[in-house]
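Schema walk-through. Below, the input block comes first and the output block second. Nothing else is stored per chain. Lengths vary across the set, and this one has 503 residues.
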Amino acid sequence: MTRDDAEELAVEQALALVGGRNQTRDRADGPMRGRADDQTRDRADDQARGRAEDRTGDQAGDQMPHNQNPGEPADPHPTPYATPSPPASPAPALPWDRARAVAARAGRGGPLAVVRLPLDRALGHVLAEPLAALTDLPPFDTSAMDGWAVAGPGPWTYEEGVSLLAGVAESPTAARLADGTAVRIATGARTPADTTAVIRSEHAHVDEARGLLSTRRPLVTGQDIRPRGQECRSGDQLVPAGTVVTPAVLGLAAAAGYDALPAVPRPRVDVLVLGDELLAAGLPHDGLIRDALGPMLGPWLRALGAEVSGPRRLGDDSEALREALTSSDADVIITTGGTASGPVDHVHPVLAALGAELLVDGVAVRPGHPMLLARLSPDGPHLVGLPGNPLAAVSGLLTLAEPLLAGLAGRPAQDAYRALVHADVPGHPHDTRLVPVVHRAGRAGGRDHVAPLRYNGPAMLRGIAAADGLAVVPVGGVRSGTEVEILDLPWAPATPWTEGCFT
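--- output ---
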């Protein structure tokens, strides 16, 4: 660590320990417009904090007790509240919730494209239009069981060797069933006109000697018949626009008569990995470390519904970065590292040289403070600049990339939800914190809750690898038993309340 880095680290530690608690609240009260002058005037103060996090990570505000086993929740009794101090100069970073709102608006900024995709290519896309039934479902009255179609009261006569099968062209027998007669029928076969009910095979008694069929149970009109249009009528809306095409949606669309679906194209994303210190393979050595973000970002972004190219490793080369940005045909470009103001942090200078519009330049969140969102040109791609530390980059993904991509893909905004947190969670003195958590089921009548996980420093992935969500911890922290907003991870189950998972 150089002397300058050490000084910056000391500044970061001091700010984390004694920073003004009311800073974010003061900033949130002001209007979004008119912030440019304040951002320019106060950028130096912000950079002093941002450089330290981007290179070394948050300090005291992000530390957890060290006497826990891997994957265990945090100590249930840490001190959650930061030491108050006089307010410091306001930083230009946007509050966390406002930064997410800016990213969401950027994603919804233009009309959505529509493509028609064959069913075998539509999985994971978002429907651009409501899906209306092209036919009644079922399209005709069908048998729900293997058995006998009967008409009128029994007993019924039947013709030996005659049966109705699914998919077989209509026969004279299938056209109409006279009172007092029966015919064998298979599941899914069209029932003849005037059928009173279907008797299941196990409930029927056949007197072969007399050629008569009777039932062992009382007959109910319409039993075991699926009437035409029971599920839907032609023209009924089956699912709304904005629905993600799942395997079940594909099956419903096929049943309703579709061969192709109107869908929103997936946003195309390029990933640019910056940093001369990164290795693509092998063990760290001689000051070089493994690139953790290159392998992680592609699958993560695909889970968010994007089409992602393979990561490009550019090192700390401003000309290579500029060339990559100007030659990209992606909808979104993700960069990793280089978002602070160090001697090899080239993202800001290159964006300035290209005349890009900075929509978000720093976010009041830990980890991940020096993230950014830019528009390279009025009709050009967006760029999400992620910090180089792994968990800080995850914070940037969930803060800026996820709402941006959701808007571009036509996905509806994810409903926020809150959950009880078991254990006190320390807070940052003036920024939101995102803390990995695991969901757990309540015991003995207790409520379901989340437990914070350790190993949550900006450069760590051990905590997030064991998590199924991130808790949004407000300034100053929260006490055990408090409800906090939860951000689900894209691969988390819809109902993740399973005791013992991810611990």
